[in-house]
Amino acid sequence: MCVLIYRCKISQLNMCLDIELNLRLLIIDVHQIRGDKCWRDLTCMNYHYETQPVPNPISWFMHHAPQEWHMFETMSNHVVELVMPWLLLLPWRSAVAMGGVVQILFQTVIIVSGNFSFLNWLTMLPAIFCFDDEHLSPLFSLKTLKCVPVAEKLADRNHHRPVRYQRAVLNCMIGMFLAFLSIPVVQNLLSPNQQMNTSFESFRLVNTYGAFGSITKDRTEVILEGTTDEQFTANTRWKEFEFKCKPGRVTRTPCLISPYHYRLDWLMWFAAFQHYQQNPWFINLVAKLLEGDEDVRNLIAHDPFQNSSTLPKYIRAQHYGYQYTVPGSEGSGAVWTRKYLKPYMPPVSLTQLKEATGLSRCRDDGITVPPSPDPREDMRHVSLLVSVWWCHVRDTLSRISEWVGGLELSDVRDFISRQPIVVCIRSLGEVVLYIVYLWLEKVL
pLDDT tens digits, residue range 143-174? Predict the structure, then answer.
């Protein structure tokens, strides 16, 4: 469960700050303790690095750490997520700063151990507000620090103005509103039939969130294969499609892409737990590959029929079990070992898909494809939406505050003047992360 804590402090006597500038993120993963048994017997980390959605090159080494180290990792996870966040609520600056350091280090370890896209990078940003200028000043040059007293003098002009009680009323109203909406969330948390990743009202302002409440013990992968044979037999040669990052060939080294995100590879990890009929996008993906769609080919690493004059006649999906190779087998060049489990989807052709799903549109050569959403809709980068969302939040809060007369622009300027380094680092972090994301998009 994620609890958003608003720490308000305009002065030593007045606990009131702008909501957007004082967002505190407190993660309390109670669902882990109540979920998978491995969180209680401290064995979850024995499986996590091997079965996570998209492993990176470091995951292999972390998986083969001693059993005692994995138990220490699991216990540390409980301490960081269940105990340390309460430091953010204490009135002492040193305790809040310690809580911020722990959260940043925790997210850094997760980034190093796997490809979890931009999620952990964004989680770091609210932790910057755990520090003030005194904590962050050693990171800057003397020339930059000399500019701080000038900004402080500008802020002192309006430092002794009367307290704006309208702001306090607005903050209390918002707090009571969120507390009222959180009642079903707390009831769900205490219920024996707790539900994760669920919203309880139409605007989704509050919800339950739970990642890795249950740890997958075995890794399975869906492997797509195609053939140009008109009729497939036991001797048919099937060629394998290779995705950009998810495990496929056992000799390929895991990729390192964070904070970039390959949405299709991520979805393929979830598809391995379900039947293909539960995922319409998977059927559409197969249809696009049968059609030779260039946009979809760009979403994968290798299409064995891309340079061929003949498109695949049939594509099938096989279910394999994957495990890391053991230390000492590096000479074979393999990172994974895999074992065939069962068919995932039987061989299908465009004609069969047409008959099963109906017609929607035709290609230039008259071959019809099944109606379904464009798979590129699933590949859109959430980082763009996050950036737009933040802009709307800032604009909305500014309009509401000005409407009730409880917040003036000078209040925000005063805060920025008193804590310029905090605000600059937070804004710079957002900009740098966005630029890196755009650069990786062009490179990869």
Answer: 877 777 766 666 665 555 555 677 778 878 88
Distance from C-alpha of 304 to C-alpha of 311, rounded to nearest angstrom = 10
DSSP per-residue codes, 305-369: TTTSSS--SEEEEEEEEEEEPPTT-GGGT-SEEEEEEEEEEEEE-HHHHHHHH---EE-TTS-EE
Q: Which residue, among 142, 29, 136, has the nearest Cα to 80 in the 3D structure?
A: 29
CA gyration radius, the chain: 26
Strand partners, 25: 4
Contact of 276 with 270, CB cutoff 8 Å: no
> Within a 13 Å sphere around the CA of 183, how many CA atoms are in the beta-carbon half?
4
Q: Tokens representing 177?
A: 């509103």
Q: For residue 127, give the H/E element and its range.
A: helix 119-127
* pLDDT (tens digit per residue) in 186-223: 887 777 777 777 777 777 777 777 666 678 899 999 99
* DSSP labels, 411-424: HHHHHHHHSHHHHH
Contact 310, 226 (CB under 8 A): no
DSSP H or E run through 71: helix 67-82
